[in-house]
């Protein structure tokens, strides 16, 4: 900028002292103007005025461009500062959310596992007590339908969408496998076997879940295969027990029930079920209706009003076993691997046998203890094989 005035004055003097004229052949002839000529003063003044106007306009444009560039730079800097502040705020929010979400998920998973371990461990004795006042399929049907209606109405009142036709069909299939064959079969078998034996039979659920996972693309490893065989031997030992051997129907049902439950658990991760807790509500609604229809079709009837003891047992089954525990099971199936979701089967036999001995006067035979150790050993081997695989 410092050299510009000098250039302006040089061009000014040069322009004032040089007279350009155009000849007839359109060539430019430049002659120096005589300084002393009066007739040239008006021309000099006009040219001087013209040149000053041009350079004044040039300086104005330069100053405007400079002001615009300065304001633009200021805006860019302000925008960068604002963006940095927004990025910092977003990073803080993301980091806080990321730190809260895993801890929240871990807490929900832990609470869900505890609900399955202890509430479902107590449902075996609860089902046995409920059988004192209700027929077998009525026990399972009333339990599931009552919990399903309460949960469905609650979710719809909160604005959850109703399941679609495809989701209802998937709920019928999964609910039939889990609740009709699985849970209903256990209640039916407990007419002849103890609650501890029923829980032991369902201890094979993780074994069958590992096998069905292989059918969908991941076959068990050698350690898992060994665990499956060992768990099956435990089921055979249960059949050698007098309580099961005396009633082949109970033995067959307790063999089919864990297979059906494991298959339903694996399919629930692949079928188009409703989102969230609505999946549990739809399964309990459909499964409960099927159980009641099945009970009525085989002639089950309520001959008298139940006593307080079976009524309390039924209330525990509805609230603790279905509303809380079954909903927690659905949550685990959506958020953890099947081996962890079905790990309740390891603990339920211990809880069920302990409650049966303490509250119902049930006896544990040496064969039952051996069967318990065999089944649980097979389950542990399957879990170890999954971790290594």
What do these coordinates show?
The chain is an all-alpha fold and 389 residues long. It has 2 domains: 4-76; 106-388, no CATH class. The chain is 78% helix and 3% strand. It contains 14 helices and 2 strands, in the order αββααααααααααααα. A two-stranded antiparallel ribbon has the order 1-2. Residues 6-37 and 93-101 have low confidence and may be disordered.
The end-to-end span amounts to 75 Å
What is the percent of helical residues?
Answer: over 70%
Strand order within the widest beta sheet: 1-2
Q: Uncertain runs with pLDDT below 50, 5 residues or more?
A: 6-37, 93-101
- What's the structural domain tally? 2
Global Rg: 43 Å
What percent of residues are in strands? under 5%
Q: Write down the overall mean pLDDT.
A: 76
Instruction: Please state the structural category.
Output: mainly alpha
Q: Helix segment count?
A: 14
Q: How would you sum up the major sheet?
A: 2 strands, antiparallel
Count of individual beta strands = 2
Assembly status = single chain
The outline comes out as: globular
Helices and strands, in order, run as HEEHHHHHHHHHHHHH
């Amino acid at each position: 900028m410092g050299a510009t005035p000098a250039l302006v004055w040089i061009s000014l003097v040069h322009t004032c002292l040089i007279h350009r004229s155009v000849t007839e052949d359109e060539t430019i002839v430049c002659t120096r103007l005589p300084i002393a000529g009066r007739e040239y003063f008006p021309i000099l003044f006009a040219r001087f005025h013209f040149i000053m106007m041009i350079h004044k306009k040039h300086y104005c444009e330069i100053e405007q461009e400079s002001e615009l560039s300065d304001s633009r730079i200021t805006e860019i800097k302000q925008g960068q500062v604002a963006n940095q502040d927004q990025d910092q705020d977003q990073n803080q929010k993301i980091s806080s959310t990321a730190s809260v979400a895993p801890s929240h998920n871990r807490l929900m998973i832990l609470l869900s596992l505890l609900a399955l371990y202890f509430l479902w461990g107590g449902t075996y004795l609860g089902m046995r007590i409920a059988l004192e006042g209700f027929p077998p399929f009525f026990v399972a049907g009333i339990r599931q339908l009552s919990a399903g209606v309460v949960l469905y109405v609650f979710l719809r009142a909160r604005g959850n969408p109703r399941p679609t036709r495809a989701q209802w069909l998937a709920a019928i299939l999964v609910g039939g496998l889990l609740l009709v064959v699985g849970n209903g079969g256990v209640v039916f078998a407990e007419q002849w076997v103890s609650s501890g034996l029923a829980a032991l039979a369902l201890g094979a659920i993780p074994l069958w879940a590992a096998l069905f996972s292989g059918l969908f693309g991941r076959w068990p490893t050698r350690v898992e295969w060994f665990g499956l065989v060992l768990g099956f031997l435990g089921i055979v030992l249960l059949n050698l027990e007098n309580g099961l051997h005396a009633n082949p129907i109970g033995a067959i049902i307790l063999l089919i029930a864990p297979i059906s439950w494991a298959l339903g658990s694996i399919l629930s991760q692949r079928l188009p079920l409703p989102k969230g807790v609505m999946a549990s509500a739809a399964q309990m609604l459909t499964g409960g209706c099927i159980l009641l229809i099945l009970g009525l079709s085989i002639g089950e009837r309520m001959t008298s009003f139940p006593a307080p003891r079976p009524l309390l047992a039924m209330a525990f089954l509805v609230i603790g076993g279905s509303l809380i525990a079954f909903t927690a099971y659905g949550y685990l199936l959506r958020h953890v691997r099947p081996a962890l979701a079905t790990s309740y089967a390891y603990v339920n036999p211990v809880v069920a046998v302990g409650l049966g001995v303490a509250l119902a006067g049930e006896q544990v035979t040496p064969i039952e203890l051996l069967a318990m150790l065999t089944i649980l050993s097979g389950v542990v081997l399957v879990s170890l094989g999954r971790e290594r695989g």
